[in-house]
Amino acid sequence: MTDDIEERAALARRGIMDHSDCEERTEDWTFLMRQGRREFPLGSRAVPGPPADRRVRINRRYR
Q1: For residues 62 and 55, what is the distance between their CA atoms, to the nearest angstrom?
Q2: For 21-42, how does the pLDDT look when each residue is reduced to its tens digit (9 = 90+)?
Q3: Three-state SS string across 30-62, please?
Q4: Fewer CB within 10 A of the terminal residue: the chain, N end or C end?
């Protein structure tokens, strides 16, 4: 199997951007990613979620 990705993306900044109070509410949390010189947001809906009990602990931690 060959890897078609030349450079993998990584988090561009620690933490998450909380958008839960935005009127549009397309995403509650967004991660800023970096791939080479390019930075781009990755919405939490695009990331497979953790089990329900872990989501509760994460939510409490970042309030």
Answers
A1: 11
A2: 666 656 667 788 899 999 988 8
A3: EEEEEECCEEEEEEHHHCCCCCHHHHHHHHHHC
A4: N
